[in-house]
Protein 1
Amino acid sequence: MAQAKTQFGYRRHPDQDRLGADIAEHPVVIVGAGPVGLSLAIDLAQRGQKVVLLDDADRIGEGSRAICFSKRSLEFWDRLGVGDRMVDKGVVWSVGKIFHGASQLYQFNLLPEEGHKQPAFINLQQFYAEAYLVDRVAELPAIDLRWCNKVVGLESRNDAIALTMVTPDGPYKVHAGYIIACDGARSSLRRMVGAEFAGQVFEDQFLIADVKMTAEFPTERWFWFDPPFHAGRSALLHKQPDDIWRIDLQLSRDADPSVEKQPENVRPRIARMLGHDQFDFEWISLYKFQCRRMDRFVHGRVIFAGDSAHQVSPFGARGANSGLEDAENLSWKLDRVLRRQSPASLLESYHIERSAAADENIRESTRSTDFMAPSTPQEARLRQAVLSLAKETEFGKHMVNGGRLSVPSTYDSPLSTADCDAWGGGPRPGASMLDAPLALRDGQARFLTDAFISVGTDFTLLGFAPDEEPEAVSAIRIGGEYGYLDPQGLATSRYDAEPGTTYLLRPDGYVAARFKHPTHAQLDAALERAAGFS
Amino acid sequence: MPLSTSSNFAKPDDAFRAVVEAHRGLTDEQSADLDAALVLILANHIGDIEVLREAIALAKRRVLDSVQQQQQQQQQ
């Protein structure tokens, strides 16, 4: 079995000796140093904020847990300075295959076009992702990461929150302007604010095992309905780094978890699947899935992100990836509010945008789980009809649901300015920016996402041979006298651009507004709206 | 385009007959399988989620109406 990969020491902090009127005050305290809390801390620190990051453990957890990280997450991590390391270690993939019985029904490619810096997905054990993020945190003095700090009390004051932590040296308090709860599905902060976590529990049980073996399977996501080695149920096989393979087997509703997760009982199942038993177990977990969310993600000065706010079934890689999307959505808004550049009400747009995304993720993952585990005879009959129609019809293939993989949500947002021009394509307001290959004037290749990072990931005007721009905003120019070159014309076509076309990008890389020939007044109004003044 | 409930077949009897005959000789189980596949094939052919929803609502009223009628008969 896998051991904790990295152990960290608890260190006493001077805050622990400060009492009464001398209690330390911090603008932001993040609770939970998982992928979401670590990424949020890095983003805030890169924007110039001081952050205290607390974790109740002193190590990175066992097991692979999340393994699939999406293109969007990699683009975010690239902005945080850890993208290359994740991609270099990860297993890059874009193709999935769906089998029914012994035969392949169809295959899909999640990124069939060239000209993107990041791949559709990488598979990477969560502990590697966390270890790389912790290394990045260590490079940023603005982040004060405190292990073995368990939050046990939360008390609202006039303009701050009093937090009580327990440490190996006993309890202490700090005051925080904002608390971001990234403390997972069993969030204790959620309990402390008295919030519900309502939703649906699926009765079917799934066995998840990571096995170590050398094998020649391609780096694709393989999903079976009713395979010969696991009759009547579903199975998943997916490659991770270090010759580790993720295997996911649907079990019956009445399977006994304590019996099923014994290695001697798991081994024959997996040997049947692989056709041999030349493998070792890294990690075995058995669980039921839940799809649920908090009613409100923002509770005054306590804001929830990641699994603490919403939980989905894993078929679709919508757990960790949606948590990372929460972090990139929240970070720039909190930064602006702390700098008093935007009203505190800007944070409400985090709730609006990300709770709608959570609904979408829950809807997609619930549909996948229902398709894999039909709950009535008629549901099973309809599923059987789809699987058999998929053998000879295109529409049947598209109805087979073996997991719909995470793509960024398009926000219906108060920060967006509605289109006033006619568009034949391109990302609409509320959608995330699309990458494209560009070149410097000397011919050196750059991606649009690189250009976005190099101008500072603030509000940015993306202009195609623009006439002129407001000076208050950073800008990426494509074409014209000084701009990037668009050698393959892909940026122009992906953004449905003509000379003069201008997109206003938010600091998280989402489109706030777009115009074919904007006036200064239009751009100023769009910027005001996107910054939360509306 | 809303759900069309006007008579679309030149010979409606032929259409009804074709469906009836498709079920001839099948067990209830097989008939249910046939209907499930047929519904999905026709739904895809229509290719309009609003029309499909209207059709489902119209069909579902029969089921609900018959439940109501049974309850009324039991009360009488």
Protein 2
Amino acid sequence: MRLLKLVPDNTNIGFVRLRVVAFVVTALLTVAAIGATVTRGLNLGVDFVGGLMIEAQFPTAPPLDHMRSTIDRLGVGSSALQQFGDPRTVSIRLPIAEGDPGATNAVVGKVSSALKAQFPGVRFTRTDTVSGKVSGELIRNGVLAVILAVFGIAVFSWFRYEWQFGISTFVAVVHDVVMTIGFFAITRLEFDLNIVAAVLTIIGYSINDKMVIDDRIRENMRKYRQMDMKSLIDLSVNETLPRTVMTSVTVFLALGALLLFGGHVLRGFSAAMLLGVVVGTYSSIYVSSSLLISLGLEPQRFGRKPETARPEAERIGPKA
Amino acid sequence: MLDFPRWKILSITIFLAIGVLLSVPSFIPEAVASRLGLGNLPRINLGLDLSGGSHLMLEADTADLAKQNIERMEEVVRTEMRRGDQKIAIGDISTTGGRLSFFVRDGAQLDAAVERIRTLTQPSGMTGQRDWNVQVVDSTRIVVTPTDAGLSQATNAAMQVATEVVRKRIDEMGTREPNIVRQGEDRILVQVPGLQDPAALKALIGRTAKLEFKLVDLTADPSQVAQGRAPVGSEVVPYLDPREGKSGIAVKRRAMLTGDELVDAKLSYNSQTNEPVVSITFNSEGGRKFARVTQENVGKPFAMILDGKVLSAPNINEPILGGQAQISGRFTTDSANQLAIALRSGKLPVALKVVEERTVGPELGADSIRAGTLASAIATVAVVVFMLVSYGRFGFYANLAVVINVFVILGVMALLNGTLTLPGIAGFVLTIGTAVDANVLINERVREELRRGRVPTQAVEHGYKEASRTIFEANVTHAIAGTIMFVLGSAQVKGFAVVLLIGIATSVFTAVVFTRMLVALWLRRARPTHINI
């Protein structure tokens, strides 16, 4: 049986040669992502801004204008309506009712009975109420988790390898996070707790990807002492290219299934993850690996210490 | 590589078999499992987003708690000063500003007063701090302030009681398997699966259920009461039902009896009007007190006050001696029953408010399970086919590892009594995608080694050895991200992180150790001169 090979054997693509172009493109995209986030802001879910969210499923797609006017007539505050991919599923966002727990119940009751009267057959599938205090904590914990994850992993690769690896990984992962957030700013998809989980997973995945290439760079640095850094990185990236592509495809397949069949609640998560896989793979090659050259990583310097200990050694095993 | 000792094969097989077996109970519907006598086997619980239900985060009103704490101290101080032969006269008592302050009338007794109050305080916490600070200000006033340690001790005690009260109330509602846990200093997490209407639940939990019987102050001037002013020793309390009268009613501050002296409360019907009422039974001391007060005040009205609102204010027609009474107040059958439950389970030591609520309807939960299962199945099939066409026999081994891994993850989750949430399913699907990464790494490495001209056995051996290091490094970093998610994440994110972490651990085992065994056994048996990978 002939097996499928997505990447031919012994590729020799000059990734490093294109790095200046890649840096410019990356820089522009990053600025665009930050710009979009700053100017447009994120469509934060009730998890992060507090408020009341009612999800309603209609038998047929409802006219949103009519829905909005029905709700606005109730005097429960200004509503924001949003469709969940499927036009029959609409989320209704309202400000939280101040006062005792009964106040929120009353709002939910008013909205649901008014909608039931206007649109027979509507079902209310989900209600979330998050107070301002809790949403503040959720934001804080989410931001803290992302920062800790990025730093924790950068510190790990710094201890494990050389500082250049720590910095290049750090920069690449920050790039991935910025891109993902920028994506949410541009598409206006709702940014909620699940998306924070997605961002953390992207960080984990992206690091995983970089570790594999970094590991190969280190291995080749030991093997080919005299090779210049550019060719060495090209060689390492090319050698690991089949794996990079294969793994991206398998993860893509799994996430694609999740996006198409996993239901509307997970749609934002799946979209974020899919984007993260693309961005993470790109940044492994173009941001983190290429950055190593600019940071002045050299094979000779790297190997010096064990060299004096065992000058005859051709290959030295892993540090650990 | 080729010598894989029998004990190793055996232990790997047994280990995986146990993992897979542990997942089996979770696939059997709960009802069937208990009929087969397997109800006690560990199984995966479904999160509220899959089973449908309500998640409520309750937070104690700490300001209210601090106020109550000081009022309690005030009572204690008053009693203490009146005690013994040498009574100490105090006045101008104030409980504002988070402290208790009062004036000692006779300056000569100041030291004695301080001494008496000091004996009321107790050491609290590790630091040897006492729960209250006693200070003399302006050489006439004594100021008693709760210390931080004292306050947190009071909060802790109140929260313990509150958690129990909430548990009792929810149990009385007859819902299945509620999960009620304290969270942090001042919060209680309540999760009730399969609940259709959280409104009733919230109404029940949100009620302090502080019941008091107080005499109505007949000396109060109605025009003053209308402006909310009452004579000294009395206070104006609003009606719960505004139809009873807009401005409320003046009652004596001192309660003649409180709900603490109840032993039972249940729904019944008034024999004359047939309207729903709550019948209460006092304990013996409460019964005696009630008998005495009603004997002394025949013909006068008294007020039944719930959580600071007057339910009703009937006249005492005759002394009530049996230790039983009826609470009336325009109830419906439902509201009377709810009040009975609340009274039975005791009053909440502190007011609780809902700071977070998430309710998922059972239909959406069922939809999510269906969608999640479908997505998992399609993801698995897609990955399996892709691996098979890419790596042939080696892909088949990797697939076997992935499928076993799926069951082992479920088994480990069941063993840990874990909860599967919707984000957990996402983690699951993602794990299917990433689990084969280890095999991709190994197989690509084997391909490389073959290209370098190694013979099959050596290429495989090298491939596994070199790739294992990379796999380890990559998974450690992945696990760091997962651990951070687990520690800092909210309930939903945690559900995702658990699956991810378990998946990382088990996938390294199945993808590296298990496939290595399969490959070794094949190489030993077939001794191929060429491998198609």
Protein 3
Amino acid sequence: MSAAGCPSGLAPAEEAAGVGDVAPFVRASGDARELALKVTGARCAGCIGKIESAVGGVDGVETARLNLTTGRLVARWTGDVVDPNTVVSAVAHAGYRAAPFDPEAAARDDDAYGRLLLRCMGVAGFAAANVMLLSVSVWAAAGSDMGEATRALMHWASAAIVLPAAAYAGRPFFRSAFNALKAGSANMDVPISLAVFLACGLSVFETLRHGPEVYFDAAAMLLFFLLIGRWLDHRLRQRARSAATDLLALQTVAARRLETDDSVTSVSARDLLPGDRFVLHAGERAPVDGVVEAGAGDADLSLVTGETAPVSIRPGSTLHSGCVALTGPITVTATADAETSLVADLARLIESAEQGKSRYRQIADRAAGLYVPVVHSLAFATIAGWLLLGAGPREAIMNAVAVLIITCPCALGLAAPAVQIVASGRLFKTGVLVKTGDALERLASATAVVFDKTGTLTSGKPALLNAGALTAEELNASAALARTSRHPLSRAIVDAAGPGLAAEDVEEASGGGLSGHIGDATVLLGSRAFVGVDGPDAEDDSLETWVRIGGGDAKRLVFADAVRQDARAAVNDLRALGLRVLMLTGDRRAPAARVAAEIGLDEWRSEVSPQEKSGIIEALNAEGERVLMVGDGLNDAPALAGAAVSMTPGSAVDIAQTAADVVYQGDRLAPVARTIRAGRAAKARMLQNFAFAAFYNAVAAPLAMAGHVTPLIAALAMSGSSLVVTLNALRPEGGRLAGPGARQTALQPAE
Amino acid sequence: MTGLLILIPIALALGGLGLAAFLWSVRSGQFDDPDGAAHRILLDDDLDD
């Protein structure tokens, strides 16, 4: 239990992130208190045990329960005996990241419809299995060995099972069909409801007049298969929805507001008004736009502008929402509220871009659009045809109902969701979260990939370039000081030096650097002026820090944002897939050119504003390209939403993760090409399934119209086609998505 | 054939039992956290250590 984070090593320990005071997020009803937290980093049984015992061990907490599937932790206690912040720090101390859920949003996310579908599925499955016992014995007797009274008993028993079950399990379809008809349109549920009603009605009629053929089993089976498809589809959507709520939770960060008497109260960011003053500590993100009033230091704007280098701020500097203070505390006067801040502007850009995306129609919807009119006209043609041929109305209606039953879209309803859930499940195991069901289809049709630079093609964090030029003593002394700071350059020094102890009595000079003692020597780590270096500025404009031990010479430490290890291979791989690769960055020209040259990109633009980024995406769309946008910053979010499909690394800012269709984990870029391959494979599977469903209907519908379909044939055809479609979705991928093989494929040139 | 009058109700009762168990498990939240349930079996929290 000593190591931080997942004890199985499945996930790295999360860095503690300042979420501020979580008191506003506690839900109180009477004496009972409840705090819901989104926990990231939990993967295994050890994580559950660690987190639940850490939170359960907080004085006063009665129950702590972690849902590993959704990553939600609910802690309950009675009365005001528990400071909710100790719950968050207990989780953080165990090595996981916790952020509070907005209680209203968490309640909205309750999956009542999913449970209704599951119950309906259970009832329909029960009815289908039991009525089949009765139907099979009737079919096996084939009218010869079974007396008419026994057959009637079987039919009445079937009716007693299926009629209540259909009334219960058919509700999701009936309700949706009724709403569609009320609105004057027809969806897929209209022919389904019609088929269930007619199959039941006709069977009751036949039972009453002791007819030989009833369709009770068909009605039950049809509902069962369709409900499986519905539930799979719903689970996909639910996962996307809870991913969105989770991301919102990570955004609801409390702010420290300074009151007029200089006391600090914790408020939700939404309650900050222009003119309010608030305090930012090191590592905290500005909740709204503002002007620095007191304090100086560095701020990380990379998520907003894409620029890697920390920017120094002093009283009078403007600070956009989303900027992270690297040193603190800084007092800021708000100039906008949460609704009018830069983040909110970007959110509006995202919204308008997403409306454009809704123009995309899923393959399944296009199939449904064809299906409804065709099936209904076939049924009418059957009635009309048989009447014209001189058959009685009973026979004509029987055959029309057989057409409706046998063409019922069981295979169609299973075709897409089964493939989507299997493919996204396989991707999820390799660390790629597909947030929307149709993202795979859209990925498959992408023709161009646009990358952001900072944080996407590069790691987004500076790395120490000249560790070799320092002596071990200098490196260790710098690292000992650096371990006390959150500044990205300090982190880079610590990364280069490896594990070790932090120096004690380190003092941080605002906007200057760190000073401390190692043994008897005073160590200074910081800017050129802070360390006391004379002479001209360095010839290049690299990021730099200086270190001086005692009276010795000052040494220069140089940093740069390192390109991701496999960036060049990943870009070549994408080209091999036939995609055009571009780079857009908000960073300055020189670092952009360096990265482009290193990766081998020839199409790139630098110093692009967020609005320009989404403008360029639109221009590409207009050229007829279908763009996959890969980016991680606030400045990428509108472009992510406007592109045909978008991916973002798991390290991305929350709003980018909300806007993107796919989130991938890890430090490599290989998942981009891998996900495109998976999307292409999934689309091929879906098309196979639809082709099969169409073929099936093309054979079955004429048979039914000709009056050759008996209840036995209907049952065989329906279950057979559903089975084929499901098995095709489950068919293994030939190992192409498997863990170790995946890396290999990513480096292979072409398929 | 009179045996059917006993056997059909028995079959239905057994099936109904299974259905009731399923409905109960949905209602009591056993499908809310399938991943967690799979892992919790490995926890030794019933042992004193």
Protein 4
Amino acid sequence: MVKKIFKSILIYLLGIIFLLPVIWVFSLSLRSKKDALSAIFFTRDLHFENYYIAWKTFNFSKLFMNSLIVTIISVFLTLVISALAAYSFARLNYKGSNIIFYIILLGIMIPPAAVIIPLFIIMKTLGLYNSHYSLIFSYIAFGLPIAVLILRGFFLSIPKELIEAARIDGSSEIGTFFRIIIPLSKPAIATVTIFLFMQNWNEFILALVLLKDKVLYTLPVGLANFVGQWDSPWQLVAAGVIIASLPIFIVYLLIQDLFVKGLTAGAVKG
Amino acid sequence: MLSKKLSKIGFIFSLPTIVFFLFFVSIPVLFTLALTFASWKGFDINEIKFVGLANYYKVFTDKVFLKSFLNTSIFVIFTTIFLNIFGFIGALIIDQKIPGTRFLKNAIFLPVLLSPIIIGVMWSRMLDAFGIVNKIIQLLGITKMPILFLGNPKIALYTVIVATLWQFTGYDMLLYYAGLQGIPNDIVEASRIDGANEFRVVTKIIIPTLSPVITITMLLNIIGGFKVFDIVYIMTAGGPNRSSEVLATYLFQQAFRFNDMGFASVIAVVIIIISLIASVIRIKVTSREY
């Protein structure tokens, strides 16, 4: 019993030590301008207004809005497009569909950084450079392979008989897809959604290259742009870091198990 | 007749995916490959000049490229080894039924949720001359002058590695934790009854059983490591004096600062080839194990 309590204390201590960087940034975010560089941890006078000033200086309303627009639209479209393809690769095979599926699988391993030059050129040619469309289209393309892979695996586990019965009842393929397959696949769709959401929410290099105007910046680029200027006040940078991290962390605490499944989805399947 | 109709519908269903993939993944990959044989500043398509293998010669004899390749390899080796060790130990700790394990799990997993940009910003400030680490070092009297973790070419890369370890230990930990749940309890119990100590249980039973998980986790770390960009870009931008330059940051610089698209494309092709090799190994391993 004593041993267990001792172990438990050690585990809490370990967790706190691991979180020290976060705790330090939090302490920094509450300091006065004078204390920002001189204090070690928390100071007596706390400046909560730093958060308000940081929100204004970083233009967080805009950054969050841009990130939300780009992420939600791209994730939603990726889901629709990939689910249709995954269903066809699972149950509506056609000549060459297997080869196409495997070629798309190879796409999982192509990092966006490696094709950033042609993407930049293509977006310029299409007139999409410096718009959210350029990000949405690239995020869809780079999200598709893993989404198709996971959803196809799940669709294969749905009994064929179910689909055939619907067919005999006169249901169209698209009707079967939306009325039978999709409702049965909620767990897989949730996994894919979280995986894609996190990937697109945190994506950096494409947003860095494909956007020029500051008003279009997503969260990571906006943050990088602001802290890139080394004279930016530390206490505001720290408050910005906390503001930018908080939403994802809160959502994580609400749906932990789904999150873990979604984030590790890239590892288990494939 | 029905199957013919079905295959037609099947094709229509997969068409949007094919189109997106073609335009924004396949064609870009081929375009990159083509650009490696060209000299181009990236502005006017008509100015693309065929130069044969000149870019390859330039890249493979370029000291900075070799340095960034070496740095990327160091990054991959260190992160892969330590992420797996820390992740595995973390998984063993949180797999016990003791109060606090849930807190520890969430604490270690928290940085995984954040963008590498956020992690980089935090760690840059922390390790700055005015940051907490140097304050403590000076308070303890270890050194009088602050240590320039990101300004010293000898340690900048390793500083970025440490920040990366802090960020992704939670990821490996959860993969191992999931693996541990798959080990039947009675096997572990039986060997304990047979008198095996904890160390033997781990080395003789848990590690061998987890070997597929170990392989996958290491491969994922390797693949992730070779394309590292964000955290290096934000913490050191490859500096000081190229000491932490990695493949992706060098590519970015050649393409968008120096406008040498041909040169940058060769680096891109190197990244693609490494990624494809790793992915083929991964597909082989997964199809064998499962």
